Each structure stands twice: as structure tokens, then as C-alpha cells.
């Protein structure tokens, strides 16, 4: 029996193989440059504690630490955390399921970031709602969360179809995308050399994410199109900021 909440993917789906695919697609280009922008957007100061929820291989955790933040990374994948400790040593990393009650060491943070669509992997909406409650519980009163993800508005703009399957190839990576805008479900099959990765995620409308965040206990919800605080356009990833 699994000791974690039901998920759309295997626990280690977003380990090294996925990261090789993502690097080839340029998914994390500019990630480090966004760290100081995220710090400003969340109103953080040097020495503040920040949790990177779904930190993967730790790139953004390390970038935050380089700017004086007491950064902590958490991920459900033991493989990803082991790689984060190897590639980006220094920050503290934990293996934990953010859909379950959090241990004491993962509470009381001044800020929380959830980047690169690290949200929407629960088997049902209920698991995603549980993760938002965990985000809220991880923060001190008045602490701020920033979620950066692809919402349904952006996916409609990019794919422009809800009929059949979209196939494309970029920098040697073959992608097969099957999206259902009525349910928000997206399945992407990646092939890059010997790496084959299947990713499933549930996307949301920005209005629904705001409603879910408020139901989890957040207030003062704001929406942006980037960490610089620019307005959200259809082509932009959503940056949702809220206060615990």
C-alpha cells in the first residue's frame, strides 16, 4: 500500500530523465534570474526562510540561497532530492508528501514558492486542494506564497485546439500532447534519445486557483504574468501570490 496520497504520476516521474528532457526544451532557462524577482515580489529579506515546494533537483533552492535566503527544498521523490543534494549542496532538503500533514520542520516559513507547474498532480481535485492547505500550513501568519504554473488560458493560447493529439519536436525532443480543456487534464509523452517520460497534470483556470487558495485559508490573492509583477497575458505563465 502506498504511503503517499494518490497521484497522477509515479513518484519519480520528474527525476533526472525528465530534467534532461526539460533542459533540452529550455524549460528552466532564466530560472536563476527569477530568484531575486521572486524575493522582491514576496517582500522577503535576507535571512528569511523560504520553502520550495516540489523543488525537483534544487536549482531554484540554490538560487534563493545565493541571494541570502534561508532556502529549504522539499519533494516527494527520493531520487530528485538525492540529485539535488549532489548537484546543489548547501541548502537543506527533505523528502515529504505535501498532500499529507507536514512535520514541524516544514512549518513557520516566511515564504513559499511552487514553480514550473509543480501543482496539479493529485489524482483528484481533492488532493490538489489538500496540497494548497499544506502550503498554507507551511507558512507563518502573514507569510506569502507564489505559485508559477501554466493555467488553462495559456494552454488554449499555445495549443489552439481541443481536438485530437498535438505532436511536435523541439531540439530533438518529440512531444505528444493530449489535452482536454473541459477537464483540464494534460498528458504529455516525451521522447529524447533513450529517455521516455510520461507526464500527467491537471490544469486550472486562474479563477479556480484563486477560489481554491482562498478556501485553503489564503487571502490577498494577486495574479501576475511574471515574477516582475507584470500583468497576465494569455501567452504568459500565471504567477499567483497569496498571503497566509
Fold and architecture overview:
- With 244 residues, the chain is an alpha/beta fold.
- The protein has a single domain, classed as Vaccinia Virus protein VP39 (Rossmann fold, 3-Layer(aba) Sandwich), CATH 3.40.50.
- Helix content is 29%, strand content 30%.
- It is built from 7 helices and 11 strands.
- It has helices at 16-25, 31-41, 59-66, 78-87, 125-138, 152-159, 206-215; strands at 49-53, 70-75, 92-95, 109-114, 139-149, 166-170, 173-180, 185-192, 195-202, 219-224, 238-243.
- It has a 7-stranded mixed beta sheet, with helices on both faces. A 4-stranded antiparallel beta sheet has the order 6-7-8-9, covered by helices on one side.
- The longest helix has 14 residues, at 125-138.
CATH class: Alpha Beta
How does CATH name the architecture?
A: 3-Layer(aba) Sandwich
Tell me the distance between the termini. 33 Å
CATH fold label: Rossmann fold
SSE-based structural type: alpha/beta
Molecular shape: globular
What Rg do the Cα atoms give? Answer: 17 Å
Uncertain residue ranges: none
Proportion of beta-strand residues: 25-35%
The main pleated sheet reads as: 7 strands, mixed
How many alpha or pi helices?
7
Average pLDDT figure: 90
How are the strands of the largest sheet arranged? 3-2-1-4-5-11-10
Number of strands: 11
Order of helices and strands: HHEHEHEEHEHEEEEHEE
- Would you identify the CATH H-level superfamily? Vaccinia Virus protein VP39
Helix content: 25-40%
When the domains are counted, the total is 1
